[in-house]
Amino acid sequence: MSPHSHHHPLPPSPPPPRPPPPTSTLNLEELFHVSMLQLASESEAESLSALHLLERSLVPNPQPDPISPPELIRGVVKMLCHPHAAKPATKVLLALCLAEPNRSAAVGVGAVGGVMEAVAEMECSTAERALAALELMCTVAEGAAELRSHALAVPMMVEMMGRLEGYRGKEYAMSVLAVIYGGDKEVAAAPPEEVARAVALALQGECSARGRRKGALLLKMLTESDRPLDVSHDGHDDSGCVMDDEF
């Protein structure tokens, strides 16, 4: 009998490899869970690692409405005052605040006060991102209320308008001031004339059409303090926030 007369069946072909799963809600939840644990640790290196992981995942390809656990945002806010962590922390905070549901959560864990306490020590580009996130948080009622109750809000925004070189940072500061002076309560933290001078000076430099519009609105509020306007939601769809490499 020929040795080739009996054919052994070939083993079945292995199934083709599955394609890598897309970035899903589950993967995002896992990312948030791991990062939250690292941010909750006492190790600054662990926290910094978590921020870089979040930055790589959220900033280049923003996810549609990445709903974040409040404790994660609390951990990010905690790192705003650390010199080596402020840059990635502001990038992550801004990326999270682009999703409207996260803004109330950020306000609830003290992000408004966290930005106020840390922004003066930040480099210009980092401070711009922090103010952009602050402006977004002020589009929700509780964020605007928290801002108006902060004693340093007005003097800090005046200082930022004078210190920041780029026009975007000045615009964010003017937007925040418009929220403050657009409230129902009288603002006594700084004389309106002093704020108006700072705004007028900021408008003399490089400024976009949006910035001039914001500045004109703010100057009008400062001169009509007896008839305050509510603009806490002004610019909601015109926030001007960008997520590029230089920013």
What does this structure look like?
It is a single chain. The model is unreliable at 17-24 and 226-247 (pLDDT under 50). With 247 residues, the protein is mostly helical. It is built from twelve helices and no strands. The N and C termini lie far apart (79 Å). The chain folds into two domains: 26-150, Alpha Horseshoe (Leucine-rich Repeat Variant), CATH 1.25.10.10; 151-225, no CATH class.
Summarize the structure.
With 247 residues, the protein is mostly helical. 59% of the residues lie in helices and 0% in strands.
Task: Give the SSE map.
Layout: H1 25-40, H2 44-58, H3 70-78, H4 86-97, H5 100-108, H6 111-118, H7 124-137, H8 141-148, H9 153-163, H10 167-181, H11 192-204, H12 209-223
Helix pairs in contact: 1-2, 1-3, 2-4, 3-5, 4-7, 7-10, 8-10, 9-10, 9-11, 10-12, 11-12
Rounded average pLDDT = 81
Tell me the count of domains: 2
CATH superfamily of the largest domain, called what?
A: Leucine-rich Repeat Variant
Low-confidence stretches: 17-24, 226-247
β content, as a range? under 5%
Shape: elongated
Keywords:
247 residues, mainly alpha, Leucine-rich Repeat Variant, 59% helix
